[in-house]
Amino acid sequence: NKRNLLNSGSIMAGLVKSDTEDFIDWWQHTVFYQIYPRSFMDSNGDGIGDLKGITSKLRYLADTGITATWLSPIFQSPMVDFGYDISDYKAIQPEYGTMADFEELIDTAFELGIKVVLDFVPNHSSDQHEWFKKSASREPGYEDFYVWHDGIVQKNGTRVPPNNWPSVFYGSAWKWHEGREQYYLHQFTKEQPDLNFRNPKVVQAMDDVLLFWLNKGVAGFRIDAVNHLFEDESLKDEPLSGKTGDSLSYDYTEHIYSRDLPEVLEMIHHWRQLLDDFSAKHPERPTRIMMTEAYAGLTQLADYYEDSNGVRGSHLPFNFHFITDVTGDSDARDYVYNVEKWLIYMPRGHAANWVMGNHDNPRVASRFGPASVDAMNMLLLTLPGVAVTYNGEELGMVDYRELSWEDTVDPPARNVGEELYQEVSRDPVRTPFQWSNETNAGFSTATKTWLPVHPNYLELNLEAQKVANRSHYHVYKDLLELRKSAIMRVGRFNIEPLTRWVFAFKRSYPNFESIITVINVSDKEQLVDLSEFLSHPKKLVVEVSGVDSKYQPGQSLAASALLLAAREGLVCRLV
Amino acid sequence: NKRNLLNSGSIMAGLVKSDTEDFIDWWQHTVFYQIYPRSFMDSNGDGIGDLKGITSKLRYLADTGITATWLSPIFQSPMVDFGYDISDYKAIQPEYGTMADFEELIDTAFELGIKVVLDFVPNHSSDQHEWFKKSASREPGYEDFYVWHDGIVQKNGTRVPPNNWPSVFYGSAWKWHEGREQYYLHQFTKEQPDLNFRNPKVVQAMDDVLLFWLNKGVAGFRIDAVNHLFEDESLKDEPLSGKTGDSLSYDYTEHIYSRDLPEVLEMIHHWRQLLDDFSAKHPERPTRIMMTEAYAGLTQLADYYEDSNGVRGSHLPFNFHFITDVTGDSDARDYVYNVEKWLIYMPRGHAANWVMGNHDNPRVASRFGPASVDAMNMLLLTLPGVAVTYNGEELGMVDYRELSWEDTVDPPARNVGEELYQEVSRDPVRTPFQWSNETNAGFSTATKTWLPVHPNYLELNLEAQKVANRSHYHVYKDLLELRKSAIMRVGRFNIEPLTRWVFAFKRSYPNFESIITVINVSDKEQLVDLSEFLSHPKKLVVEVSGVDSKYQPGQSLAASALLLAAREGLVCRLV
Ligand SMILES: [Ca+2]
Ligand SMILES: [Ca+2]
Question: How far is the CA of A445 from the centre of ligand 1 (A)?
């Protein structure tokens, strides 16, 4: 499908003027670099990454060409779910530092031209939050801050939860509270009670949180589990899915009353308004934006962008299809299909986004194989719109799947036990960033880090990749440099499977040199003919090639017979 | 996705030579007009359509611009499933005529340049077929022509079927045969026993049937229910789907052992070879082809075209997405998505195909509303590749849903009874063709026809549409005329949703005038700007407009502000 990234006349006019800066806002084409604070950089030798550590590495981001980052939660938390259980939305987790450290981080980032987006977790707080304690003791004003229910007393006198809803993390979504003598809802762990967004006081309290951080200078929020915000007021039993007979499994029911309710969109609109109002009032910093996390249907995510009435919501509803819908076994058609379906359903005039990894899913090198690292970064970074990179992917870091049971800390992994933990554990994708071949990969001077460093750090680390003639890091950095060009910002887009195993896409605009990305997703060498796809094949010149490629940047290639090695990707200019 | 209909250099060369006839075989761009023989034309006044009737109307097809037709079954049959239960594969159903009538039909068609494709029903015969009678009596050579099994004797002595497979038409797929004292498999009605394609004698017998008709001069076959051909030899129970608790419903199990087995592809390859061999030996008539009916997954249908080893199978695996995946409520994105997904997964170098209706599904006017008739024909007939039209759709015929219980003959409708028959009956889409405002719409001189004529025939009939200044028929015929142009045969293709409710696509090739189709799928008037989609908007000139359009062919339009009425479609030239 050949179309503009952003379907608006003004942008096209921009291209003609050879100056697109005025026509695309920062967040419509940036790369968001996700930092997992616990594992990025430890400044004080306690083995845990922290804010000062991040601040010390902002220069690295800037040097790489990164201009926006989103941080996994840095707020006060008992760390039952590693920060996604927040006990004070306005306080920094002490392990990570102080508010002064945060302010320094923001200031440094601003000086370096880096926007900082925080993780906002509205669906639930920690059970250690003051709000929950007050609600549990029915303190006036807090009675309905959470979702409470008496449950149902059966004929035999046994009290059971109000309905059959399972929690995402296994077991009933309801927990009996001895103090209040009622059940409370928790869609995630029992230490994460769901806030009641039907209570205007909760909405107000959360607005207050958002404004607090906006006033600190953040560029916006990544909103966690947004499709879980509301439950049907009737609290009816959900119909069974038929997928499993285990009533404690999240797959047991169809989540029609506890997920994806229409009220979610209203709350997204409310927050969008808040952000837009704040941006209008504080134009000294770039537009404040929201990114939303929801593993949801395509039409629903499209509605997050903009609903059928034209009301705009999430700037960037995360697109997880490269994580959930393609694998190392996918063929070229699967990639093209996944790209096209997003572009087709995204309402006109919005920015596409592509998430290649995060802290919850295996890394690219482990999902697609180490040979695919460069090709997947080429895909991610030359598609139209916004790219999201998880820290370490620029080096092709690999999951530490062999991490021992003793060292395992991820709650779901601990829950399933020593036999099965390796399959479900998210620890392997959260090991410390590999900065160098020094102790703990340069991440920390501690004797023991919170998670062990992947033992491959002696070879696989940033310093080594910086000094190497060719490296994943150089490829990544070259791609970011290429992204600055007008054609990459607003060029039209056209993608096609050339064969079962090779696909290509083109960024083009009349009178501009087109950029072509070609990727072989098979484990075998493939010979392809690009001349038809390119209509009038002129000369192809290599712009970026992978670390093992036989092609060098600057080299001229024949479009009619291009030989690609297994898993090879290539970015070329059409001159 | 901008691409050629047929990705081959030779075709592009053809366009440059302004003569594409040599480069595209007839079946790669034709319209297949499906005739339902029982309802097309009755020649002898018995109220049932017949072969002489069809022959008498071949001139109508030719005048309309139709050059290929496929006929629903015309073979000897007890008519339990209206011809899909065949008792002699080499004999004409007496109600429909004689072999001489058939030969005359073929000869007349050939003279008029019309290819005739027959319906081949290999999965099952009628239980009245000689083969089944011989197999039931264990006549040597026929013992294993069908799928027989002793069943299982339970502890209490009761005999039950060998497994839990349900039939497509409700109830166990196994029926006890008193004569042979075994169960036989029937994936459809119990009068349709499944042939055993693991028996080389069955394969041979069916080859013999195909060659018989090929020698009569047919252009190929539409192969019925092809994905049901093989069952797993273990006859294992299928896993439950969880969709229903009714063990007699076809939805009860996941059909992993009774449908879509890999052997299906081998049989398709075998038949392709037979057809190719026959074509090579008898080049006096055009290439013989197969079209396959399977309501199956996209990747599987793509493999029917050509598997991962490059082996070619079905020329045209029917694409039912306009029937199964879009409705009157679909928005522009749904249409674009359904078009793109087929083009993405179809292997390179094949012809796309689009089925807009058939004898098993509601008509376009009833699915999308009468106001959509012209737009849907524009969609069908200007997309790249092959179009399949069900007879009467060129007039915008409407389902006769109000057909009385007394007049209802469709087996599944009779089965569900007088309360529910209207919902499931296929009779409403099978009423006689509306030729004129004469008795029985000109279909028959009988007092009573096998199904009643739709009472709207006084207004809605071919004669009226022929004499009218504007009519669905004229639109359809104009579109067929347009299809003859080189650009429609081999032009590149590019489709996009312009807004939530309007999509457009372009057929283009350098130095040729592009053809643009624009369709509003909403019930409201829509204003759209095509200038961006068309990159360099020149002048748009209306080529075909609908019966109620305010635009006339030849009229010039501004691409930047095009007003489309509710459900309006428009085909334009870009000059
Ligand atoms: Ca630390
Ligand atoms: Ca007759």
Answer: 10
Distances (CA, A) of B401 to B43, B387, B425, B438: 26, 26, 8, 22
pLDDT digits (tens, 9 = 90+) for A109-142: 999 999 999 999 999 999 999 999 999 999 999 9
Which of B1, B243, B531 lies at the smallest CB-CB distance from A495? Answer: B1
Question: CA A563, A566, A571 angle in degrees (round to 5)?
Answer: 60
Among the listed residues B50, B81, B194, B293, the single catalytic one is B293
Nearest to B496 among A1, A333, A337 (CB): A1
Q: How far A236 CA lies from chain B's nearest CA (Å)? A: 20
pLDDT at A3 over 60: no
pLDDT of residue A9: 34
Catalytic site includes residue A393: no
Which of B3, B344, B494 is facing A337, going by the closest CB pair? Answer: B344
Three-state DSSP string of B481-517: HHHCCHHHHHCEEEEEECCCCEEEEEEECCCCCEEEE
- What is the per-residue DSSP string for A44-112? SSSSS--HHHHHHTHHHHHHHT--EEEE---EE---TTTTSS-SEEEEE-GGG--HHHHHHHHHHHHHT
Mean pLDDT (chain B, rounded): 94
- Alpha-carbon span B175 to A392, nearest angstrom: 62
Task: Please report, as a single letter, which amino acid is at residue B262.
Answer: P
Write out chain A residues lying below 8 Å of B345, CB-based: 333, 337
Q: Is A181 a catalytic residue?
A: no
Q: Which residues surround ligand 2, an ion (CB under 5 A)?
A: B 42, 44, 46, 48, 50
A307/chain B closest Cα distance in angstroms = 10
Which residue of B2, B299, B301 to mutate against A (max A Cβ within 10 Å)? B2
Top residue of A1, A3, A249, A492 to mutate, by most chain B CBs within 10 Å, is: A1
Tell me the β-bridge partners of B503: B497, B519
E strands, A164-226, where? 174-177, 182-185, 220-223
Helical residues (DSSP H) of B306-358, grouped into ranges: 321-324, 332-345
| Residues of chain A with C-beta less than 8 angstroms from the C-beta of B1 | 1-2, 336, 340, 494-496
Share of chain A above pLDDT 70, in %: 96
* Number of C-beta neighbours around residue A276 at 10 A: 14
Closest ligand, as measured to the CA of A44: 1
User: B572 forms bridges with which residues in the sheet?
Assistant: B516, B542
Domains of chain A with bracketed CATH: 29-123+200-406+468-476 (3.20.20.80), 130-185 (3.90.400.10), 407-467 (no CATH)
pLDDT band, very low/low/confident/very high, at A4 (cuts 50, 70, 90): very low
Cβ atoms within 10 Å of A48's Cβ, excluding its own: 22
Q: Tokens 């306080």 belong to which residue? A: A91
DSSP letter for each residue of A498-510: SSSSEEEEEEE-T
Across A479-568, the runs of DSSP E, i.e. the strands, are 492-497, 502-508, 514-520, 526-528, 540-545, 556-557, 562-564
Assigned token pair, A137:
């003791």
Phi-psi region of B442 (alpha: psi -120 to 50; beta: other; left: phi over 0): left
Q: Which of A555, A533, A543 shows the shortest CA–CA distance to A513?
A: A543
Task: Tell me which residue in A240, A496, A510 faces B3 most closely, judged by beta carbons.
Answer: A496
How high is the pLDDT of residue A14? 35
ipTM > 0.90 (yes/no): no
Residues A268-299 pLDDT 10s = 999 999 999 999 999 999 999 999 999 999 99
Q: Which residue type occupies A459?
A: E
Distance in Å, CA B397 to ligand 2 centroid: 22
Q: Average pLDDT for residues A177-197, to the nearest whole number?
A: 97
